[in-house]
Amino acid sequence: MSFAGARLLHISLCVLAGSLVLCGQALCQSAPPDTPPSPATDLVVKDTPDDDGGSVTLSWSLSADDKGGAKDVLSYEIRRSKSPDGPFTTIKKVLKGTSSTTDEKKVENNVDYYYQVVTKDASSETPSAVAGPVRAHVQWFNLGRLNTLLITILYTALLLYFISRAKKGEKLFVRRIAGLDALDEAVGCAPEMGKPALYVPGISTISDVATIASVNILSGVARTVADYDTRLIVPNFDPIVMTVAQEVVREGYMAAGKPEAYREEDVFYVTSSQFPFVAAVDGIMVRERPATNLFIGMFFAESLILAETGASTGAIQIAGTDAIAQLPFFIAACDYTLIGEELYAASAYLSRAPLLLGSLKGQDWMKMFLIGCIFIGLVTLNVGFAGFKSLFDLPLTIFR
């Protein structure tokens, strides 16, 4: 390269360096200072309503930089102190765009607390004004569930009303379900065939509602069997259920006027082991060949084993349980099945106990009330009025 060319290159480089320096100075002069983000405003703290205490609710207006501002807000820090002058301790962090939260971190009831909401960006933070004092309190009643209370009161009133009528001797009408006709027919076949009837009250304890309903049905079956001079075999899984069953069957024979026909050895305890009990009952069905098998109560995995063995002996079979998982097996292998609430309806119908009859009528009227509410809700929603539906929303806000 010639001397003139080298000199020209040197001059060009110097001019370029000077231009870069001038541009840097201009950029530095035009850059805004590193200012903190705008604070959150209108911080409001209050006791969380309708709770058991230990909670404070906070709400605030978002920072002006939260959306579209000069600063990029990243989050908000919730800080708490027992003094308005601090020191404040961070108890929670929430994302930007959040304008409310609750403090449930070791909040003591009836203690004054003060709060700040600190707006944070990548390099700085700005605290809000201090809000407080606020105290957490225990509320005696959740107003958001007032509709549940009113419906519970209505349901209780219906139960007490119908139970009172039943205790006074009024004949409350209860529709006879088809399963009861099948039950009478099945029990009536036993004397015609000269064979016994088998009754299995489930494999649960006496504290199970299904077992109690089964015992009530057993009382009616015992009276019918006594009228026909038929033998009734009742194997039991639980010793306490066996004791109750013995008394119930004895009373059934006495009510039929044939106490001498009662055989205590036919109501017996087998074992409290599930499948050994099933094996024993299957053996009874194979040996005794009962004309009627009644499986009524709470059953589990043994349901199909019992029902299939009974079907193989040619017996008429009636089952009843509220164990939903076992219903398909009973329906497939038995002649008739009491499904779910039919078990309790049959228990009330046969025993005619005032408490059971009154409860059954009260439940029926409550169901009719709820079905009516559903119908009214559908109509009002279709015409564009949502006020009636809001009465059944949880949490309920109409009374707040």
Any overview of this molecule?
The chain has 400 residues and is of the alpha/beta class. Among the domains are: 41-134, Immunoglobulin-like (Sandwich); 172-352, 3-Layer(aba) Sandwich (Rossmann fold), CATH 3.40.50. Helix content is 44%, strand content 18%. The chain contains 11 helices and 14 strands. It has helices at 3-30, 146-167, 178-193, 209-227, 239-255, 274-288, 303-312, 327-333, 341-351, 354-382, 387-390; strands at 41-47, 56-61, 75-81, 89-95, 100-103, 113-120, 125-127, 131-134, 197-200, 232-236, 267-269, 292-296, 316-321, 336-339. The strands form 3 sheets. Strands 11-10-9-12-13-14 form a 6-stranded parallel beta sheet, with helices on both faces. Strands 3, 4, 6, 7 and 8 form a 5-stranded antiparallel beta sheet that branches. Helix 4 packs parallel to helix 5 (239-255). The longest helix is centred in the C-terminal third of the chain and has 29 residues, at 354-382. The radius of gyration is 39 Å and the shape is elongated. The chain starts with a helix and ends in a 10-residue tail after the last helix. Mean pLDDT is 84; it is low at 26-31.
